[in-house]
Specification:
The chain is of the alpha+beta class. It has three helices and eight strands. The protein has a single domain, classed as 2,3-Dihydroxybiphenyl 1,2-Dioxygenase, domain 1. The chain has helices at residues 5-12, 38-48, 82-91, and strands spanning 17-20, 31-32, 51-55, 74-78, 95-96, 100-103, 109-116, 122-128. The protein is globular and about 50 Å long.
Length: 129
């Protein structure tokens, strides 16, 4: 008896949950992203940004929905060393915005940029000054 495509997708999913390492900001507890290639995604989230991965869900039996155009969700993550991480993300040839400087409602200056990961997830990284 063969499983339906929906059941195959559910069985092949691995939950991708990140928690920040001791070197990162504690403002983000965890984030859940679906990815099509675990190793390639770990290059960004673990290798460049420095997040620790606790559980992983990888979609392998079916393609992920197109992430072109308007994004339904965005992860906004406080980090340190924003300019260094910006350069590393650019080295991966991912689509990025330029680094912008702005002020919070409380009057604090911050730098931020966004990028789209390999699976179309929009990620915003910022650093308070």
């Amino acid at each position: 008896m063969s499983l339906s495509l929906a059941k195959q997708v559910i069985l092949s999913l691995s939950l991708l949950i990140f928690s920040l390492s001791a070197n990162a900001s504690p403002e983000l507890k965890r984030i859940n992203l679906l990815v099509s290639d675990l190793d390639r995604s770990l290059e960004i989230y673990e290798g460049v940004i420095g997040m620790e991965v606790f559980a992983l869900i990888e979609v392998t039996k079916a393609g992920l929905p197109s992430q072109d155009g308007i994004k339904m969700a965005t992860a906004v993550i406080k980090i340190n060393n924003l300019k260094e991480i910006y350069n590393q993300i650019n080295d991966l040839e991912l689509k990025t915005t330029r680094i912008d400087e702005d002020t919070t409602p409380e009057g604090r200056t911050f730098l931020e940029f966004s990028f789209v990961d390999y699976d179309g997830n929009l990620i915003v990284l910022y650093e308070l000054k």
